[in-house]
Specification:
Blueprint (H helix, E strand, L loop, with lengths): L1 E2 L2 E2 L10 E6 L1 E3 L4 E3 L2 E4 L12 E5 L5 E6 L4 E5 L2 E4 L15 E5 L2 E5 L6 E3 L7 E2 L5 E8 L2 E9 L4 E9 L17 E4 L7 E7 L2 E6 L3 E8 L3 E8 L10 E3 L4 E4 L4 E4 L4 E3 L5 H7 L9 E5 L4 E7 L7 E8 L4 E9 L1 E6 L34 E6 L5 E6 L3 E6 L2 E2 L3 E14 L3 E9 L7 E7 L9 E3 L1 E9 L3 E14 L1
Parallel strand pairs: 2-3
Antiparallel strand pairs: 1-41, 3-34, 4-5, 5-41, 6-33, 7-8, 8-9, 9-10, 11-12, 12-13, 13-14, 15-16, 16-17, 17-18, 19-20, 20-21, 21-22, 23-24, 24-25, 25-26, 27-28, 28-29, 29-30, 31-32, 32-33, 34-40, 35-40, 36-39, 36-41, 37-38, 37-40
């Protein structure tokens, strides 16, 4: 059997087990599986494009689900959205994104164009934190709220290279004084604006496009000390950085990287040449990412050329197996979705909604069950769905196998499924010269335990199309020697 090693388009095509192409495949512990599809959990559509979302837990473990549009912030209550925007809503901009953090029982949000927002009670609306800056990014660490990419009078106006921290254990205090540890500063050792920031243990990593800093709380007078870790490795956007708990995985300007607090190292298996040739460089800053902790999968959604900046595809990386997959899935944003609890205290205010008129969803739907958590996406129709639906259509294309000199006839291909698809078809290709054109030698459907192609060539390549849920570990080709040319 030839075990599958995942989507490796940059490798030599004769490397055993590589996939030169695939669609809607995700890497698993054993091989490759069909990607799940979005499942409708019974929620209404948002009134506009979703600009960010999060599930946040208070100290009492009560989960609050938030999503934001350009002008509004909404909290999910049961299966309904409640407008929790400050009075008058928000102006936003053509590109602003909402980013959320939880600080004790205070839910915080920033959008780069308005002061940091706070909601301190379950089901209460947001309001401005009067002293706070307008921030592109917020992070909580070591008892502080930290903000990056600022616009505020006390930092000198619009300063995208500036950072600030609140008073310790005090998210409402931002003006520095002798009596608190609020502070601000600038990352000036390298050019450019702060693109991303993530907590790493008690520290915070701040990323410019081509540089990386590590910040650590050291007390007064410095408060937060920022050390330059790299002057040529950075992140392309705030949402291109994935926190996996003990390290960050992120997309830089020319590679995929891992940073564990010491130094950034490239992810050697990453399909970097393939990716950077197919990700629209103009809109690369729109990349969104997500860590599916239950499956140990890192997802990066990216824009393709001609999409106008829309996120159409995703690369998927299995952190445990160092294996890659690829999915076609247009989205607006991605989040870890958890159903908000529906009870008499938070029953939606719409008087026309009763038990009899609730949406027709199962009682164990993630939209009703607080214990249910799943990766969720907001589609182009502005609706939240969970990635828990069955696989639709998927395909994979193997590398080349055979003999460098001898011709062989491929008479049978036996796949090793741990879960069989509903239907599958194989297309057989051959080529007789290194780097030559592939010739289509015909199709064969999965019949019993195998496919039955029958054609001779020096090199063989397979394209397998599959329908329904499946997991494929590898395949065994039956090659019969024909002779030499």
């Amino acid at each position: 059997m030839i075990p599958l090693t995942g989507f490796v388009p940059d490798a030599d095509s004769t490397t055993p087990g590589v996939l030169t192409d695939c669609t809607n495949l995700v890497p698993t512990l054993r091989g490759m599986a069909g990607a799940p599809t979005p499942f409708d959990v019974g929620l209404a559509a948002l009134p506009d494009e979703c600009r960010g979302g999060a599930v946040l837990q208070r100290l009492d473990k009560l989960a609050r689900v938030f999503v934001g549009t350009r002008a509004k912030l909404f909290e999910l209550s049961g299966v309904q959205y409640v407008d929790q925007s400050r009075a008058g809503g928000y102006t936003g901009s053509l590109e602003n994104r909402w980013r959320f953090e939880q600080f004790g029982n205070a839910t915080l949000a920033c959008n780069e164009t308005d002061p940091i927002q706070v909601s301190t009670g379950n089901g209460t609306a947001f309001s401005d934190i009067p002293q706070s800056p307008r921030a592109r990014i917020i992070v909580t660490a070591s008892g502080f709220v930290l903000a990056f990419g600022l616009n505020a009078p006390y930092v000198g106006g619009d300063r995208p290279e500036a950072w600030a921290c609140s008073g310790i254990y005090d998210h409402l205090t931002w003006t520095p004084s002798d009596s608190n540890q609020a502070a601000f500063g600038y990352l000036l050792n390298t050019p450019g604006d702060i693109r991303a920031a993530k907590r790493l243990g008690n520290d915070v990593a701040a990323y410019k496009e081509n540089s990386l800093y590590l910040g650590r709380f050291v007390g007064k007078p410095v408060v937060w000390q920022w050390d330059l870790i790299s002057s040529n490795v950075g992140a392309v956007s705030a949402d291109a950085v994935i926190d996996v708990g003990t390290a960050h995985l992120f997309i830089g300007r020319d590679n995929f990287w891992l940073f564990d607090g010491a130094r950034p190292v490239p992810i050697k298996s990453a399909p970097k040449e393939w990716f950077f040739a197919r990700c629209d460089a103009t809109y690369r800053y729109r990349i969104r990412s997500h860590f599916d902790q239950a499956k140990n999968l890192c997802w990066w959604f990216y824009p393709t050329p001609g999409s106008g900046g829309a996120l159409t595809n995703a690369l998927v990386y299995n952190l445990t197996m160092d294996r890659w997959g690829k999915v076609s899935l247009p989205i607006e944003t991605v989040l870890q979705y958890q159903g908000a609890e529906t009870n008499y205290d938070n029953w939606p205010a719409d008087a026309s909604l009763t038990f009899d008129t609730l949406p027709d969803v199962p009682f164990d739907s993630p939209s009703l069950d607080t214990s249910s958590s799943a990766m969720g996406v907001v589609g182009l129709d502005h609706k939240i769905r969970t990635l828990t639906g069955p696989c639709g259509a998927a395909s994979l294309t193997t590398g080349d196998f055979g003999d460098d000199e001898q011709f062989t006839t491929l008479a049978r291909v036996t796949p090793r499924f741990t879960k069989r698809p509903g239907a599958s078809n194989l297309t057989h290709y051959t080529r007789d010269v290194d780097g030559g054109d592939l010739e289509n030698r015909g199709d064969s459907a999965l019949s019993g335990a195998h496919y039955d192609p029958l054609a001779s060539g020096r090199y063989h390549r397979l394209r397998i199309e599959l329908q329904g849920d499946f997991e494929l570990v590898g395949f065994t080709p039956a090659l019969t020697p024909d002779g030499y040319e």
